Structure formats: C-alpha cells, structure tokens
Amino acid sequence: MLPLLLILAAVPDWVPARWHSSDVKTLELLNQTPVNCLLLERSEWSPGFAKAAKEHGIATLGVVRPSADALDQARKPTTLGMDGVVLEGDFDATVIKALLDSKIPTVELPSRARMRLDDPTLLVYGSDQGLWPGIQVEDNGSAKSAPSGAPWIDTNTGFLRFMRASTDKPVWIANIPPANMLVTAQRYIQAIADAEITGARWVVAFDDDFNKRLLAREPRALADWKRITAALSFYESHKEWRAMRPHGQLALIQDAGSGALLSGSVLDMIAVKNAPVQPVPTPKLNNEAMKDAKMAVDVDPSALSAAQKEVLKSFTRAGGTLLSAPPGWTFPMPKDGSITVAKDDFKKLDEIWKEVNGMVGHTNLGARLFNVSSMLSNLVAPAGGKQIVLELVNYSDFPVESITAQVLGAYKHARLYVPGAAPKDLPVYEVEGGTGVDIDKLDVIGTIILE
Amino acid sequence: MTRRELMRTLAAAPLAGRLIQAERSPAMPVSVARCQSYDGDLTGALATMFDQLGGLGRVVKNKTVTIKVNLTGSPGLKFQGKPLGLTHYTHPKMAAATAYLLERSGARRVRFVESAWATAGPLEDYLLDSGWSLHTLFSASKIVEFENTNALGKGKRYSRFKVPGGGHIYPAFDLNHAYEDTDVFMSMAKLKDHATCGVTLSMKNCFGNTPASIYGDDAGEHEPNENPTKGRGDVCHEGSRQPAKSAPSELDPKSSRDPGYRMPRIVADLNAARPVDIALIDGIETIAGGEGPWIRGLRHVKPGVIIAGFNAVNTDSVATAVMGYDPRADKGKEPFKNCDNTLKLAEAMGLGSTDLSRIEVRGSRIADVQFKFSA
Q1: Of A52, A137, A356, B149, whose CB neighbour count within 10 A is largest?
Q2: CA-CA distance, A125 to A211, in Å (whole number)?
C-alpha cells in the first residue's frame, strides 16, 4: 500500500475500471491505455495480481459491499498489497469511521441520497447509482420523444454537473450496464463521455459477455476495447478541460433537497435544450457565483438564507432575470430511493419546466446548438481566458450531420477535436451577437475549441 | 317526373359538371429528370428542367417568390438516424440550388416558408435544427429570407383565401401573410407516400400552409394562439374540434370525420384557394411507405428523380405515375386505399388535369424513371 499522502496525490489522475480477473496476463490489455485503477471483486483479490499491477503503474482497490463482516473485509485488501478499498453501497457510519481512523484509503460509492456532500475527508465524490446513458426507446423500437418532439436522452450529466459544482475533488459515477442488454462499443463510449463532458469519470464496467470476450482476447472485443480506450485517452489527453468551469449566462440554484442529485431533473431538462448552465449549489450561492449570470432559476427559494436572498435581490437589481419556484411549490422528490422523479410527479415538474423553457426560449446564453436532438453538450472555459470549449456527445446509434453552433462573442479560430483523428480547423463566421461554426459530421464525441 | 327521378337528376348534375370541368382542366407540360445525388450539378439539372418548361425567368423576373418547403414533423425525429433531407424533409441542397437559380433568373426576393412543427419561433432556427446550413444558403443567394407561417409571423394580420366554388370542408382559410404577399408561389415537395392522403407531393405539401395558431390542436377557441405547440390532428384530420372562430368554420360539421375523406378535400380546397405556381418535387432520396418516421414500415429509397411543372395537379399526376401508381385511381386502390384521391378532387375543381394522355412529359420518360413505391 502506498502511503496515504501519495494516494491522495494520485487519486485525481485515477482512470478507474472494474476488472474481473486476477490473471496477471490480463494486465497486458491495459498497456497503452489510460486505465490505471482497477476495482476488484473479492474473488479477484490477490497479492500477486496487486504486485504485478503496481509494476504496471496501476492501483488496485478491493470492492466491499454492506454485510455483517464488512469492516473485516474492508481491512483485507491493503494487507494483500492493494492500494485501498471501495465501499460500494450504503454502509453503517461506524464502518466508514473505522476505516478512516485506520487510514485505509477508501473510496465511497453510496447511493446518491446517502452521499455526504459536506465531508472534506472523502477521496472521491461518487455513487454507484446512475442511468445507463442513451436515447430512451419505446417498446416498438422507436425513440421516445420528449414534449418537444425530440428524443429523450437518459443521462447522468445533471447530477454530475451539480456534483462538480459542489466539490473540487474527483467525481466518479460507477453504474454498470443494464442486464440483458446488448451493449455496443458506441454505447460504452457514450457512457464515458456522459461523465467526461462534465469533468467527472465513469468507472468503466462491461457487461458479462464483453468481459468474457475481452479477457479471452476475442478479436472483435479487442477492436471495441481499442475504440473505448481511445475515448478514454481522448479525455485524458485534454485534462485541462476537466479543470475548466461552466461558461454561460444561466445559473441554476438547486441543492440535494430540491432534486439536484436526481437524473431527469431541472438540470437535465435544460441540458436537453443544449443551453449552457452554471449549477450553483445553494450553499455556494454568493455574488461571485452569480457574476456571469444574466438569468437564474431558483428551484427552492425557501432554502435560501437572508444573505443569499440579498444576493438574488442584487442580481435582479443589476438587470438579471430571476425565475423562482412559486411559493409553496416543492420539488417532487422520489420516496423510494429512486434517482428519477416518479412518473406521477412529472406534471408537478412540468409546472416549473414550462416557466424555465419560456424564460430560456430562443435566447443565446453562451451557445446555441442546432440539429442536436440526439446530443448533449457542455460549455466550459478557463478562468479569465479567451477560449471556450464546447464538448459534445451524440447518444444516437448513427452519426449526426450538419451541426451548427452559435456562440456568444467574437472568435477568430475554431478547431474540432475527435478521438483518433488530427484536429480539424473549422471556418468561423459572424452571426448575430457572436460566432457561428458548422460541423459536417460527428460520430460519438467531439470538442470544439474557439479562440 | 317522380320524386325519385328528380333526386337522381339533381344528384347527377354536379357530377356531370365536374366531369366537364375535369376534361377542361389545364394540362401543362411537366419536366422529369434523372438525378442520382444531391452532390452533383443540381443547379444544372434544375436549370435544364425549367428550360424545358419554357424558362424560369419569364415567371420569376423581378418577382417575389415564396417557396413552401416540406419539413413535416419535429426535426428531432429521424428515420434510421439519416439526415432529414435524405428521408422526409426537403433537402437543403435542393433549396440552395433553387434559390441560386431563382436569383440568377431575376427574382427580386426568395422567401422560404413552412409552418414549423409545434413552434412559432424563427424559421431560421428550425432550419438549422433540420440540418440546413444557412451560411451556405446565403452564399448561394443574397436575396433569401424566411418566415415561419405557423402563426402570424412577421405579418400584422392573417390573409383570408376563399375557396373558389365554396370549398368542400372550409369555405376559406386564414393563412400567414406570406402566402398573399408574393408574386409567385412554389411548392418544393418530396416524392413520398402518405398514410392519410395516399401521396405527399406538391399539393399535399400545401397542407402545411395552415397555421397551427388557428388550425392546431391548441389553437384558441376564438382567437389564434400565437404560441402553438401542437399539430393539426384534431381540427383538420379528425374534425373533432373547429378552428379558432376568427377563421371561417366548417361548412358542414356533420360531414364525415374520416381523415381519408377530410384531408384530401382540405388539400384540394387549399390548392384552389392558394394555387401553386411552380411545383418542384424532389425524389432523389426519400422514403416509401409513409410521410415521416412516425409511420411504421418505412423504407429509405433512392428513386433518383426530380419532377417540376407549372401546374401542381399535372405535376403531381406525373409524379404519382413515376411512383408506380395510377394518378386516377379511385378510393380503395393503391395508393388511395383508405382515402379519396386528392388529385381527382382538384381536377374536378378545375385546377389541373390528371389525365396523363393530356400532359406532355419533357425530359425523361415516366417509364424510364419509374420507381415503384409500393412494397
């Protein structure tokens, strides 16, 4: 086990994956890939594998789930030379405290509702609860449409954006592929990108069939593995994007108590419109957080302190448009531990969504994207920089052609980055209030940098 | 004369009148051209076609030309993930080539119009969402503008178009000003089947002239709803509610509510009220089996053909024949299995002939380009 301080320094660079083998030869599959942290089930805990992994520069973590002897189990991985433990699920506080006291590096992946957002001791902010990203499909095979007529995209980006706004620590989402589903390489890349465009990381996890085929080095599985790791490498070769902050003129003030940890919540509704948004966790609401905003949505005004109410008054006095949830309106939180709003509560959510949609309308709040009904995006920028970065994910099984982006501000150069290809300069042109740029075709992921 | 004989005579009289009118319906030349791809010389192909029809300049010089494109359904709904222009939407390259050609032929202004699905927002946004590059379009023509005709748009009032002869379903339609404030009206359609009307060609494309603000399912009861968010199923297809009372109501609310009865008549009425001056039908790549991805059993097809004419009924009749159908087929026969034949209804109103023996086809022969849409 590495000293805790060294682990702390390494964690932000960990590219995690669930690994279902203790055969040291399987480590060869990780050569030339960015994966450097393996989550191992108990059956794969082995001193030999941990040692070999270390020689490859790969950290190993033992996965432990709630049980009567959880603490004993959690103490074992480090004794076998592994680097730490992952507590997956909701554990008793005494177990967590005991591990903290014994200085065993511990990554917690509880349910979203049990995440401790105010605990500075956490190595990673994460959860094992997530939607499998992609376009929802009806029983008849056609894409399920949102009220806008556009396909509805299942995504974790709203939750992850909120988490990223809440902490500077690494954010992981560790959901696994749905059972009984044929998952293509494309869908795995979408799952990676769904997290990466927010600056978070998906703990790579494959379905049983792919796992078996990959470990057996079946040629098609190896080809898919190459594509998947190329997507990981793409984001790892642009770590600077992860450090950038959301850029845009719309602020969303929300907290865990008002649905921020859910998927399909207000952040995801705005995301489907591809409107840039800055999540502002309620405890972080201050003048600095609102300095770039021209519009704001306050999902739960009753949660604000007197000082925070004053911040919003100043915001509106300075010309900002504020949309507050109506008095008495409360976010329809699920009661069964679910991470999505119950279907019966959609109508209640729709009340606020209509207002948000009406306010955002056709306004350019930093970037407007067109012909992107199967895509999500995230607009980020470095502090004080003259650059903006527009990250794109296509959740469809087909490439998207003829995408247009209109960003606020005058930019002279635009360059498109996609995995496995040289960056491509895109012609820029002037549009009302800003700069236009067109992409001919995008497969799954791409990023435009405008300068 | 017995009462029964009198009734028979009265019933036969309009039919006889319609038959005479049908025989006298205009029959103008229609141009047909092979065109296998949107990436070739589309402008050249179109120029040749309009030259075969006597030239575009004589029709559009110093004129405002309004082009009704076909962008049916939400742009978010794609068939097999293909670009919309390759399936059920007007292809942007067809639009750009036409705009370029119109400008070159002396048109003063080219205005693209469509009643964008479920929105009254700027048509430019809708086109961008449909995969059009406005940047490219403006490069092709400097005289282009846009209007979303799903509501009042840039106009101050709706224009009323009366149906000559009184109409089948509605006596008149209230439409966006763009359909009145123009010298030349072009229907830029797609060669497609249609689940309700049999075929979607230049005439059926004009069903999209109707603003959802008045004819939509969330139209106001009395006044137009300037922020429509729905289609026109209740008012037009089903007739389960009336349009906003600011517009003329149905002639006979007790008439059949069958969409196969109503829609062909509404389309014929619309074409009589606001006739098409130039019909241009894109059959380079399209879909067969229906008009959009919401119809089951669609096929992406590449007929590789363009059809153009100065009479919509003539042009649609030739196009129907190109699709492998009989343009004079009665209800019950392909493609009008569950509906009346819009073409024949329009013909009976004197809008144009469906008789292929009277329509001169220029360019390619129908038999040479025929592509059977029937599965």
Answers
A1: B149
A2: 26
Interface test with A, best of B71, B72, B78 (most A CBs within 10 A): B78
Name which of A150, A151, A429 is nearest B135 (Cβ-Cβ): A429
Q: If contacts are CB pairs under 8 Å, which of residues 191-250 in chain A contact chain B? A: none
Report A:44-63 residues touching B (Cβ under 8 A): none
| Pairing status of strand A388-394 against strand A445-450 | antiparallel
Distance between CA atoms of B241 and B221, rounded to whole angstroms?
A: 9
Q: Residue A185: count other Cβ atoms within 10 Å of its Cβ.
A: 19
Q: Does B130 touch chain A (CB under 8 A)?
A: yes
Q: Answer whether A371 sits within 8 Å of B78, measured CB to CB.
A: no
Choose among B117, B122, B131: nearest Cβ to A362.
Answer: B122
Q: Rounded to whole angstroms, how far apart are CA atoms A171 and A195?
A: 9
**Phi, psi angles (nearest 5°) of residue B42:** -65, -40
Phi and psi of A317, rounded to 5°?
-60, -30
Answer whether A370 sits within 8 Å of B129, measured CB to CB: yes
The residue written with tokens 């319609």 in the block is B18
Sole residue written with tokens 């669930």: A18
3-state secondary structure B216-238: CCCCCCCCCCCCCCCCCHHHHHH
Q: Out of B74, B80, B296, name the one closest to residue A150 (CB).
A: B74
- The values of phi and psi at residue B309, to 5°, are -170, 170
Task: Read off the tokens for B303.
Answer: 């007929």
Question: pLDDT (tens digit, 0 to 9) for every residue of chain B, 375 residues total?
Answer: 444 444 444 444 454 555 567 778 999 999 999 999 999 999 999 999 999 999 999 999 999 999 999 999 999 999 999 999 999 999 999 999 999 999 999 999 999 999 999 999 999 999 999 999 998 899 889 999 999 999 999 999 999 999 999 999 999 999 999 999 999 999 999 999 999 999 999 999 999 999 999 999 999 999 999 999 999 999 999 999 999 999 999 999 999 999 999 999 999 999 999 999 999 999 999 999 999 999 999 999 999 999 999 999 999 999 999 999 999 999 999 999 999 999 999 999 999 999 999 999 999 999 999 999 997
Note whether A143 contacts B81, CB cutoff 8 Å: no
The answer to whether the Cβ–Cβ distance between B75 and A148 falls below 8 Å is: no
Whether residue B327 has a cis bond before it, omega within 30° of 0: no
Distances (CA, A) of B3 to B8, B10, B13, B14, B16: 9, 11, 16, 18, 20
Using CA coordinates, name the residue in chain B closest to A404. Answer: B128
* Nearest residue of chain B to residue A146 (CA atoms): B76
Contacts (Cβ under 8 Å, ≥6 apart) of B16: none
Is the ipTM beyond the 0.90 threshold?
Answer: no
Q: Is A142 part of the contact surface with chain B (CB cutoff 8 Å)?
A: yes
A397–chain B Cβ distance below 8 A for any pair: yes
Q: In sequence order, what are the residues at sequence separation of 6 or more whose Cβ sits closer than 8 angstroms to the Cβ of residue A49?
A: A22, A23, A24, A27, A40, A60
Query: Could you identify the residue written with the tokens 């402008």?
Result: B43
